């Protein structure tokens, strides 16, 4: 009898262990399927945010610049200035909404230094501004290229808003283990310590991104009339 009881207990224990094993396997599979589902949803959202950022962001940026330029040159027509101010405000709100959608989803990773420099050169040519570009750097990592591309975009935006340039130079160089990107123009007014007044938080956002790569960002206004936005990042970030 004791042997039979032992056998029954052993079988019950075995069944229990098998049941626990099956339950654990099922739980792990459910968890893995949920993780795969969440990852697929996240990737879809990131892809949508990237598309919104890339397709709409550039055109809103361009519309904002052109509206500001038109507003600045409509000094003699207050009604026109009021209408342009309303249009500019609407564009800024739309641009803010696009940034909000793409924030935190790596939407800017699809920006590139070469792409933004080429766009800037084409845009400035439309305003009759001579722009030379020298940014070729084989093997530049995507995240570094995206941040430096953002520097170019912000630099050109501020240039058109606050300056009267005839020439612009966008240049990437390497020296002493660091990459140095300079966005310079010859028509900026001199502000305290080379900073432009009323520039908003654009430069602060850029500094945050550049320092995230272990780099620095600064602006200078030289005695020769050139204003420079300079970003430097460690050379080790390039492949």
From TrEMBL:
GO terms for molecular function: phosphorelay sensor kinase activity; protein dimerization activity. One of its GO terms (cellular component) is membrane. Coiled coil: none annotated. Residues 184-205 are annotated as: Disordered. Residues 45-106 form the Signal transduction histidine kinase subgroup 3 dimerisation and phosphoacceptor domain. The keyword Lipid metabolism does not apply. Pfam families: HisKA_3 (PF07730). Signal peptide: none annotated. Its EC number is 2.7.13.3. SUPFAM superfamilies: ATPase domain of HSP90 chaperone/DNA topoisomerase II/histidine kinase. Gene3D superfamilies: 1.20.5.1930, Histidine kinase-like ATPase, C-terminal domain. InterPro entries: HATPase_C_sf, Sensor_HK_TwoCompSys, Sig_transdc_His_kin_sub3_dim/P. Keywords: Kinase, Membrane, Transferase, Transmembrane, Transmembrane helix, Two-component regulatory system. The chain crosses the membrane at residues 6-27. This is Two-component system sensor histidine kinase DesK.
């Amino acid at each position: 009898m004791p042997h039979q009881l032992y056998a029954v207990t052993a079988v019950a224990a075995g069944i229990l262990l098998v049941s626990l094993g099956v339950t654990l396997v099922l739980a792990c599979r459910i968890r893995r399927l949920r993780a795969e589902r969440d990852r697929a949803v996240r990737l879809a959202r990131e892809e949508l945010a990237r598309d919104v950022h890339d397709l709409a962001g550039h055109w809103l940026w361009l519309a904002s610049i052109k509206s500001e330029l038109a507003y600045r040159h409509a000094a003699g027509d207050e009604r026109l200035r009021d209408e342009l101010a309303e249009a500019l405000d609407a564009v800024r709100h739309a641009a803010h909404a696009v940034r909000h959608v793409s924030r935190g989803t790596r939407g800017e990773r699809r920006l590139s230094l070469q792409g933004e420099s080429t766009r800037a050169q084409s845009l400035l040519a439309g305003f009759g501004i001579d722009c030379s570009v020298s940014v070729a750097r084989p093997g530049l990592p995507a995240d570094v290229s995206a941040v430096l591309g953002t520097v170019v975009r912000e630099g050109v935006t501020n240039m058109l808003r606050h300056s009267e340039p005839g020439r612009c130079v966008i240049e990437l160089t390497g020296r002493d283990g660091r990459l140095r990107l300079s966005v310079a123009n010859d028509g900026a007014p001199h502000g305290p310590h080379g900073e432009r007044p009323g520039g908003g938080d654009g430069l602060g956002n850029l500094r945050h991104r550049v320092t995230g790569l272990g780099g620095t960002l600064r602006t200078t206004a030289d005695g020769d009339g050139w204003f420079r936005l300079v970003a430097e990042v460690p050379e080790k970030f390039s492949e």
